[in-house]
Amino acid sequence: MTLRELYGNLGENYEQALRVLRMDKLVDKHIRKLTKNGLVESLLAAGESMDPTELFEKAHAVKGNCGNLGLTRLAAAASVIAEEYRPGNPRKMTDAEVKEKLRQTASLYDRAAEAIRRYEEANP
Asked: Domain residues for 20?
């Protein structure tokens, strides 16, 4: 499986990742780190406590990391949470709605992580 195939399987934007990271080697390096860096897991953990500062910071980090990697769906899901908790923004969602957004984010991440694991197995 190639990087392009990985992104195609996910329905994500390989060209965006390549524009940001500039070469296949760096896209490969950073996509492999996604399942090991703990960013999404820390966002989901922040959702357990519903700490507004933690939710904003973790969601913002996931949004940026995934946006740079061209994982636009995951970045968009994290962005919704980040904007909900951005300092100065009024809350628009209930806690239950936020938890549903976190479940959706977890589902997108699980799908991406599984595809990345298959990619890593094919490209040790």
From this structure: 3-122
DSSP assignment of 43-106, as one string? Answer: HHHHHHHT-HHHHHHHHHHHHHHHHHTT-HHHHHHHHHHHHHHSTTPPP-S-HHHHHHHHHHHH
Answer yes or no: are the C-beta atoms of 55 and 44 closer than 8 Å.
no
Q: What is the model's pTM? A: 0.92
Closest to 50 measured CA to CA, from 115, 104, 97: 97
Domain of residue 43, CATH code: 1.20.120
Dist CA 38 CA 58 (whole Å): 10
Count of structural domains within the chain = 1
Q: What is the pLDDT of residues 7-37, one digit of tens each?
A: 999 999 999 999 999 999 999 999 999 999 9
Cα–Cα distance for residue pair 35/81, rounded to 1 Å: 20
